[in-house]
Amino acid sequence: MPISETAIAADRPLLSTRHLRAYYRGLVALHGIDLDVGAGEIVAVVGANGAGKSTLLRAIAGQVARSGEIMFDGIALANLPAYRICRLGIALVPEGRRLFPRLSVEDNLRLGAYARRGPERFRPLELVFELFPRLQERLTQRAELLSGGEQQMLAIGRALMTSPRLLMLDEPSQGLMPRLVDDIFAAITQIRARGVTVLIVEQRLAEALAIADRAYVVQTGRIVLQGSAREIAENAEVRRAYLGM
Amino acid sequence: MVERAGRALLSRRRRELLLGAVVLALLAALPLGVSGAYLRGLIVLALLYAGLSQAWNILGGYCGQISLGHALYFGIGAYTSALLFTRAGLSPFIGMFAGGLLSGLSAFLVGIPCFRLSGHYYAIATIVIGMMAALLASNWDFINAAQGITIPFHGEAWRNLQFRTAVLPFHYVMLVYAALMWLIAWVIEGSRWGFYWRAVKDDVTAARSLGVSIYPSKLAAAAISGAATGIGGALYAQYVGFIDPESAFDLSLSVLIALPAVVGGIGTLWGPLLGAAVLIPVQQLSVAWFGSAAGGIDLMVYGALIMVLALSRPEGLVSFFHGRARQEAVDHG
Lengths: 245, 333
Hints:
Chain A is an alpha/beta fold and 245 residues long. Chain A is built from ten helices and ten strands.
């Protein structure tokens, strides 16, 4: 039930899924998702808890069993393992950050860089330090000793170190103070300005829709609404019916 | 900025290497201050186990795959070298190389089915495979079955790695082995593989999402760890001059190989050496002092020490040295 058909930024989307089904603990968690993300866009996936938003990202990243079609820049991903998908240029910042707690900030970033070969692999470090200068001050500190905000910065920084073309963020604002949430969302906008396409799953709807170009609303594993972020944010009926705003 | 981060890492790594060189020099000079064949023999054993445990640490510590079947690789290394020496007259250096290669290959082959298991099931599988190997070795006539192999004395010479009159040469042989294992661990810590293994150990899902291919990573760790253990087995065979299935394939040996790393600090550069420096002398001395008394007192003393260490220092003996650094990090956080 789309409220409008919005043209995708590029003629051919960078990422597209068709009839994507995903399975979680033996149950069908996604029921045929059709989604497009154009190069250079920020696309938000919003919806209530348990709607299947995180499963959608994990299905694209190859971390859950799935069927259907997933195309990334002309390459079919549905049968590829997670590590190959990462090396193709898709990075996932998972829910809960999943840092390596006993490794230092530097080593966490280094791990991201090893997804690439050659001396150029450390080049994204400049962008990471520019976005999150605090990480540079904390280089030798163990990840488990960072504050929640710094951990989120490190999780995003680590993903950026893989030199992704598509950055997928799963609830980046989770557990953060409002001021830090603003910082993280500002950083996401800057990341897009550097040419990285962003697909974001978020429960903080106002903030997510404010930075996104387009959005999809997911309910019980199905897309029930799609359109420009502004249309979805401004439609009072839609907000009441689907988003509880 | 990139250069600065690189320099910081380099200086930390150089400090570790420098410390390694200092410890190596101290251990090389140790025989000057220790007299008596018994004490020197004890140090030789501690150095051997420091090397063996560091080899185990590559798979169990860095990669997080707890193997309780490393005696298999030790035994393959020991038997390969001993058989080549006794039956083909080949130098133990060739035997060591062949034994290491075979042990590495065995660890790789064991890993193919076993790394499809996860967590404790992998550890259980390695115990079972180790016990099967011990049983096979005890009944295989080609390798003298339960009787074992006595390595004939071909003359006191470095090329034979045989010294009947002095313990000192073996002090340096085992020191080179332990130092080599330490150096391998040092190289691994700074390499892509080392980072991959630590990622696999901490969080498989996060590792995958960073482009780490889990299964080949584990197989590579197993092969290197197995080969390094096999070389230690070959050295042991030349040192003791006799091997049998009980001394080369037993489950208790697998535990003894893993323990120094666990007690010293699992997945750390210095843990295996520290653990071996404490555990091997205590184990040997408790046998010497209490072994002839009522059955099992030596084992009780040894077990009690491990319990005390595990309870007081769950992160291993290395945490004695890390405690201050961590507190400073918290203070600045």
